[in-house]
Amino acid sequence: MAAPTTAQPALDPLDFLALDALLDDEERAIRDTVRQFVREQILPEVGDWFERGILPREVIQELAKLGLLGMHLHGYGLPGASAVAYGLTCLELEAGDSGIRSAASVQGSLAMFAIWRWGSEEQKERWLPAMHAGEVIGCFGLTEPDAGSDPGTMRTHAKRDGGDWVINGAKMWITNGTIADIAIVWARTEDGEIRGFVVEKGTPGFSAPEIHKKISLRASVTSELVLQDVRVPAESMLPGASTLRGPLSCLNEARFGIVFGAVGAARACYEEALAYAKERIVFDKPISAYQLTQQKLAEMVLEINRASLVALHIGRMKDSGTLRPEHVSLGKMGNVRGALEVCRSARTILGGNGITLEYPVIRHMNNLESVLTYEGTHEVHTLVVGGAITGTPAFR
Predict the structure, then answer these.
(1) What homologous superfamily does CATH list for 19-132?
(2) What are the tens digits of pLDDT across the range 243-258?
(3) 203-228 core/surface letters (b: 16 or more CB in 10 A; e: else)
(4) Class of domain 245-390
(5) Domain with CATH 2.40.110.10 in the chain
(6) CA distance 63 to 339
(7) What positions does the domain Acyl-CoA dehydrogenase/oxidase C-terminal occupy (predicted)?
(8) Catalytic residue among 122, 299, 375, 379, which?
(9) What crossing angle do the helices spanning 245-279 and 325-350 adopt, rounded to 10°?
(10) What is the pLDDT of residues 8-37, one digit of tens each?
(11) Looking at 330-371, which runs of residues are DSSP E strands?
């Protein structure tokens, strides 16, 4: 007797493996809200922002209105959303632009998380509600001109002077730095500890000049932080962190968002390439009918679905408490590299149109060159994974 047949659902080119079914109702609702926001308020403007090299401060205020800043943290009036919900938010924001996701990520996963995880109760109560509401913008100062992948060689130092700390040094490639109201600055103390300090805008000796002439992440504010005899009170120090574990834990939070965010950039380029291929007529038929174009599109679908599954699984691990930093390194390493390949392939489908800001592809492609490097370079994450599977660290 033949087995009963079940009608198969139609195949969706935009969700080839029907991954939407793996999300619960709340996760889909959050994702759809952010997706609508991006389509209505980001996509119509972001090409112009990229061309002009700006990110209006009002965009961060809009993110705050949606409750997205520090959304995965709990207590102090914060939403306490799941890791997966936060990851899906990063995915949709980066489908708009990596700079938008970076602004939210630096605010919530770096600056806010540093205070939430390592700060005093007074610091948490003073800063976290205001940062969630977008009233206070934060940045995170760890990377230096000569200390990127090896933050242990940082030269920024803090010295006790009576009841104060005096900080000297410089930080580099700091997202939100110029527009930030506070900076979380990491410095080495006289006794060799690594300490974080909340440095407020306007403190004498502290400045945050913006970095210009970027070709990538142009819809994002990138800055230097300069500290010349910056004096801060003792209560500005984050009391919970005294080693590199402090700033590195914050970076791991931000990297988690990138695992999802890269999928958003790749998806945006694939969707544009698919639509374009169906409309572009060459030799009397759409280029989507040619084998080479179909191969490119099929490889894109494969990568996006693979990366989506990796991101979702890592998100579920984070929610269950089983996620390790090495897992995040694997996710960032694979998903960003894969997203770059998707964007580059999409650019070839669009031909000359692929290099204009009338389409999102070259913008995402350029942005991902930065994403490949920041929050740990591709090479560093490769060595993290390599060390984890062999038991032999290869950094030194």
Answers:
(1) Acyl-CoA dehydrogenase/oxidase, N-terminal domain (1.10.540.10)
(2) 999 999 999 999 999 9
(3) beebbbeebeeeebbbbbbbbbbbbe
(4) mainly alpha
(5) 138-236
(6) 24
(7) 249-386
(8) 375
(9) 30
(10) 888 999 999 999 999 999 999 999 999 999
(11) none
